[in-house]
Automatic annotation (TrEMBL):
Main localization of the protein described in the UniProt heading: membrane
Organism: Pannonibacter anstelovis
Family in the record: Belongs to the binding-protein-dependent transport system permease family. HisMQ subfamily.
Protein name: ABC transporter permease
SUPFAM superfamilies given in the database record: MetI-like
CDD domains noted in UniProt: TM_PBP2
Lineage per the UniProt record: Bacteria, Pseudomonadati, Pseudomonadota, Alphaproteobacteria, Hyphomicrobiales
Membrane disposition: Multi-pass membrane protein
InterPro entries given in the database record: AA_ABC_transptr_permease_3TM, ArtM/GltK/GlnP/TcyL/YhdX-like, MetI-like, MetI-like_sf
UniProt-annotated location(s): Cell inner membrane; Cell membrane
Keywords noted in UniProt: Cell inner membrane, Cell membrane, Membrane, Transmembrane, Transmembrane helix, Transport
Length: 277
């Protein structure tokens, strides 16, 4: 039978109490401030659900959310399709092809998305006669088409860099092993290298689609009634600042849904890489 003294000696020593430093006090203060602010905002929005503003304008936010979702998904998918040949061009052995690819990526990553939207929507609109001659005016006269094209071209540049980095991270032994089996470089890339590279690029792709979702708010400037467009219309008619609070909340919910769905997909696709406990 163990004695009380032996039991006391076998227990680990108690951790030393942390002193209340200025940094710790400030951290607790700001944490409490943000918690109270969040509770106050939740209370305010809860009361606003029964206001005239909510009954009149909140249903339109759902249609705006659908437009935002369509713009984000379509532009991301088109950009993903464009990013594969663009990444190949940037990694090409031919100087001319590599220069064109790098110039494309440099332009769309180095200029603001808003400026790109204006260049395509307002800039190309200045050449109506030329576009009408070649039969493209029907496309560029629609703000939706211009915004979708701009977002797709912009995200293609970012996705090409993500894909190129993922491909270059693959061990050279993958190429050598496939070539030793008699596989061509094209088959090796699309059947061996690309599937593994996409797994590596999953997390950066998730970040890109979230950035694209938040950047889609720019489309409201050229008369696209997405979430931000509906918020601007609601504020211009009601002059109630809660129009933008609801817009921010909608974006926050959308980002959180995408983040959790992407985490679930990543765990599903990489389950073979996890060791069993």
């Amino acid at each position: 039978m163990s004695t009380p003294a032996a039991s006391a000696l076998s227990r680990p020593p108690l951790a030393a109490r942390r002193p209340w430093t200025a940094a710790r006090i400030a951290g607790h203060f700001f944490m409490g401030f943000w918690i109270l602010s969040g509770l106050a905002l939740a209370l305010y929005l809860g009361q606003s659900l029964f206001s005239t503003f909510a009954s009149q304008y909140l249903p339109k936010y759902f249609s705006g959310a659908l437009v935002t979702l369509q713009l984000t998904v379509y532009s991301f998918l088109i950009g993903a399709a464009l990013s594969v040949p663009l990444a190949l061009a940037c990694s090409s052995r031919f100087f001319a092809l590599r220069s064109v690819g790098n110039a494309y990526v440099y332009f769309f990553r180095g200029t603001p998305l808003l400026a790109q939207v204006f260049l395509i929507y307002y800039g190309l609109g200045s050449f109506r006669s030329a576009l009408d001659t070649v039969g493209l005016w029907w496309f560029f006269r629609d703000a939706w088409n211009c915004v979708l094209l701009t977002f797709a071209l912009n995200t293609a540049a970012y996705q090409a860099e993500i894909l190129r980095g993922a491909v270059q991270s693959m061990p050279k032994g993958q190429w050598e092993g496939a070539l030793s089996l008699g596989l061509s470089r094209g088959v090796t890339f699309f059947k061996v290298i690309l599937p593994q590279a996409l797994i590596v690029a999953l997390r950066p792709y998730g970040n890109e689609i979230i950035l694209l979702l938040k950047g889609s708010a720019i489309s409201s400037i050229v008369t696209i009634y997405d979430i931000m467009g509906e918020a601007n219309r609601a504020f211009s008619r009601s002059f109630d600042f809660q129009a933008y609070i609801w817009a921010a909340l909608a974006y926050l919910i959308a980002v959180e849904i995408i983040r959790r769905a992407w985490d679930l997909m990543e765990r599903r696709l990489t389950r073979h890489l996890r060791r069993n406990a």
